[in-house]
Amino acid sequence: MKITVDGVKRFYTIENREFAAVDNVSLEIPDNCIFGIIGKSGVGKSTLVRLISLLEKPNEGKILFGDERVDNLSGRTLIEKRRRIGMIFQNFNLFFSRNAFANVAYPLELEKMSRDKINSRVSELLNLVGLSERAKSPISALSGGQRQRVAIARALANNPDILFCDEATSALDPQTTHSILRLIRQIRQEMNLTVVMVTHQMEVVRDACDFVAVLDEGRVVEQGRVSDVFSSPKSKVTRELLSHIDLTEREAEENGGGDADRESPLPMVKRDGTYILYFAGDQTEQPLLCRAAKQFDVDFNIRGGGIQHLVEKDVGMLVVDIIGDKGEVNKTVQFLKDKGVGVESTVEERESNGI
Predict the structure, then answer these.
(1) E-assigned strands of 102-155?
(2) Is the predicted pLDDT of residue 58 greater than 70, yes or no?
(3) Residue 202 DSSP code
(4) Residue 268 has what DSSP assignment?
(5) pTM value?
(6) Pairing of strands 275-280, 298-309
(7) Is 251 helix (H, G, I), strand (E, B) or coil?
(8) φ, ψ (nearest 5 deg) of residue 231
(9) Is 5 helix (H, G, I), strand (E, B) or coil?
(10) How far is C-alpha 158 from the chain's CA centre?
């Protein structure tokens, strides 16, 4: 289901002062995709999701599911709409007094579904998340990843149109995180769901999402396809988030095994070079710097970089000095831009910041 967020604001009054947690946010979340909302702690991510998931009402703006406005619903109509929404949380929110099967059955019991139908539906969902053999296990006997799988199964019990994941992998180790993200992508494809993932981890966006919106101080500072944002970040916040991205278990295996927790080359990328170059897709396989050095009277000093493997395609980043006459450097920069490479001058940014 497509979700439209149009000029939404949510503010609170603290000590007689108005504080905008979400400030004039507009988003278009396509149908049947995984949409990431990312930002640092305290920028309004969870508040925005509470608004979109109808747990709170905005002070201004409107929210539409498909062509239907939903932010102004109330009473029984609101309850029915909320039942078409699934939620997954960081801390699982499971009942420790119930086993795995009974946790998944809980929303179906609230619907007063027959026992036979409940048994059939719960068995189907536990099989989907890979926990058929742990149906009778108490929650205390399950690992963090297994608990999250139970939470996912419960969120899917009522066949939702939209699935919200609020920091759903933050409490998990890297290997388990990757398996949960893989499961969510599988579920999205099989059930034709729209999935909205809130996270502060760029690794989650990279490994699971099709689209992303970057939040800062309650506002969207950048949004688009993940491959476009990774290959040509426009905002300072996005570039900072990208500079700390880590290697996942999947990429460690692709690079010959080793420690899944080791860092990727990207955290080595510091803003000490004079240019940052962004590559995407086939560009990551082309010797463009060699061609430029042969064509123009310049030298390249590579200070750091790396390649990230996204759902859609690979993207790469290099921090370099381009050394030579100013005219030759300008020609080199234009050559790279003509080849589709994103080129950002860090000198200009430092000068604009008074550094």
Answers:
(1) none
(2) yes
(3) H
(4) G
(5) 0.81
(6) unpaired
(7) helix
(8) -85, -15
(9) strand
(10) 24
Architecture of domain 270-352: 2-Layer Sandwich (3.30)
Q: Is the pLDDT of residue 142 over 70?
A: yes
Q: Which pairing describes strands 85-89 and 17-29: parallel, antiparallel, or unpaired?
A: unpaired
Decide: 2 and 194 in contact? Cβ < 8 Å.
Answer: yes
Give the Cα-Cα-Cα angle 84, 90, 91 (nearest 5 degrees).
105
Extents of the domains making up the chain: 3-237, 270-352
Query: pLDDT, tens digit, for every residue of 160-213?
Result: 999 999 988 888 888 898 899 999 999 999 998 999 999 988 889 999 999 999
Which residues are registered as beta bridge partners of 44?
A: none
Q: Fold match between 3-237 and 270-352?
A: no
- Going from the C-alpha of 21 to that of each of 29, 44, 45, the distances in angstroms are 20, 5, 9
Element spanning 214, H or E: strand 211-216
pLDDT, residue 264, reads: 41
Q: Work out the burial of residue 310: count CB atoms within 10 Å of its CB; fewer than 13 is exposed, 13-18 middle, 19 or more buried.
A: buried
- Please, which residues have CB within 8 angstroms of residue 297's CB and are 6 or more apart in sequence? 324, 325, 328
Which residue spans within 78-149 are E strands per DSSP?
Answer: 85-89
Euclidean distance between the first and final Cα of the chain, in Å? 47
Give the model confidence (pLDDT) of 70-102 as tens digits.
999 999 999 999 999 999 988 889 999 999 999
Contact 314, 284 (CB under 8 A): yes
Interval 264-274: pLDDT, tens: 434 444 445 68
Cβ atoms of 215 and 37 closer than 8 Å: yes
Burial 146-163 (b: 16+ CB within 10 A, else e): bbbbbbbbbbbbbebbbb
Say what angle helices 174-191 and 144-155 make with each other, to 10 degrees.
20
Give the architecture-level CATH label for domain 3-237: 3-Layer(aba) Sandwich (3.40)
Question: Which residues does residue 307 pair with via DSSP β-bridges, in sequence order?
Answer: 316
Contact in structure between 171 and 93 (CB atoms under 8 Å): no
Tokens of 273: 């070079």
Stated as kind and residue range, the H or E segment containing 314 is: strand 314-324
Instruction: Estimate to the nearest angstrom the gap between the alpha carbon of 7 and the chain centroid.
Output: 21
